[in-house]
Each structure stands twice: as structure tokens, then as C-alpha cells.
Amino acid sequence: MKIIDLHAYPGTDTWIRSQGPYPEFLAKYWGHTWSPKGEDAVIQDFQAAGVQVVLVAFDIESVVGAPPCSNAYVAELRARHPDVIRQAWGAVDPFKPDAIQQAETAINDLGLLGFHFHPIMGRFAVDDRRLYPLWETINALKVPVMIDVGTTGMGAGMPGGSGTRIRYAHPDAIDALAADFPDMPIVMAHPGWPWVEETIAVALHKGNVSWEMSGWAPKYFPDSIKRDMRGRLKDKIMFGSDYPSMPYERVLREWGELGYSDAVLEQILHANAERILGV
Fold this sequence. Notes:
Layout: E1 4-8, H1 13-17, H2 22-30, H3 39-49, E2 52-56, H4 61-64, H5 71-80, E3 85-91, H6 99-108, E4 114-117, H7 119-122, H8 132-141, E5 145-148, H9 171-180, E6 186-189, H10 196-205, E7 209-212, H11 223-229, E8 237-238, H12 248-256, H13 262-277
Parallel strand pairs: 1-2, 2-3, 3-4, 4-5, 5-6, 6-7, 7-8
Helix pairs in contact: 6-8
């Protein structure tokens, strides 16, 4: 069965360094470090899992001062491995003076799919009015955005959560953004805990909002999500891994253990992404 992974990071040193101190915080929380892989090893992981990925750039330079895992970087990886890297999400730090120009370059010159935003690590809510000129630009470019919803392990367990606020990733902010930009496709990333029911409500209510389930072991999906994925949300749910957070072997095995029909899995693993995002 074809598998499109909508949420995979490069896993290389460039990506790890772009997160500043967060990998160190996460290592303390999880009890193990993230070791960077070389480009060839990352591609081998994708090939071994039988997935085609949408790679994710990363830029929170205004928060941590670290050089980004840039749009040009993921575009170059895509160009070198087109059989495995199907497309790429760009990243824009919304507080940079040239954020709008970067967004235009990512689409018009690099041909990226759209943009991913991590509100907690970037320290903003997507309904912050200061970001609306950027949303207007992205809307005019007619590309989708993928926005993390729910808590994160980044900064977890640190004093003050290392300065982050999980409330930035509340689904209410996505609800407001979707209402203000009804023509902009929005993909919510991750199951949205601890606001699972509210995240379900946004996915059901807003026609321009869909949902991908990366970042969690499937066996721990809340029951309400597992029920709605095969029912009223089966046309909106898409697959993501959050690579390299969890090994593909575990993620794909646990998806298979959920007991869904092949028809439902076909939609989740590739057909919805192809229809909604054109990947």
C-alpha cells in the first residue's frame, strides 16, 4: 500500500542544530539524545519503510538564534532524491523582517508545497494579529499550511517549560485562522492533546481544515480519535510520522494493529493527502 508521510524532518545535523537548545531539553525529558544522521542514512530509512515523504524545514531563529534548516536545504534534498522526497514544507519565522519575502521565494522560486508552523517553539499563536500580513501573503500564494496543535515534548520538564507556552498551540487559534482565511487549506499536525475533543470539533466544523496524526504512537491515540478516523473524519485524516521521533517500524506496525479496513487505510495513508494537498 502506498504511504505518503506528510511530516518528516531531515534528521541531519543541520536540522538538529536549527532547534537551538531544544534537543538538549528533549534528551533530558526522554532520557536519550537525538544523534544526527547523514543524508544517505536518512534516505535509507525512508526507503526501508517504503514511504514517500513531505520533508519539513524548520526556522525559529528569532527565538533561539540558531541557523534554520532552510527552505533551500529541503528543496535541495528533494531535488537529489525525487523518488523518495515527494515534496517539502517550507518554514518561515514570522518575526523576521523578511518573512513575507521568504514565503514568496519558497513558493515562486523553490516550488515548495506550503508552510509548516510550530507555535510553541516559535512562541506565537497563529491567530495573533501581528501574523496576519504573512497569512494574507500565503493565502494569495494559494498554498496550504500545516500547524502543530496540542502540547509538545520540546521544553517539557524544564523550569517554566524553557519559556514556552503550550496554550499557543490550542485548536481555538486554528479555528479563528480558518474562519478568517476560508480559502487557505490548513492541516492540523498531531492529535491535539490535551484538547482532543476541541481539535475534533475544529476538524469537523471547518471545511478547509484537515488533520494529520504524527508524533504519537498509534496505540495511544485517544478512543474518540480512533473512532472518528474510521467514521465522520475518514476523509480528513492523513498520515505523518514526525520522523525521526519514532521508528517507522513501530509507527506502521501500530497503524496496522488499529484494525481499520484497507479502504480506510488507503484514505489515511495516501489518498486524502493526494486529494486535499495534491501531493
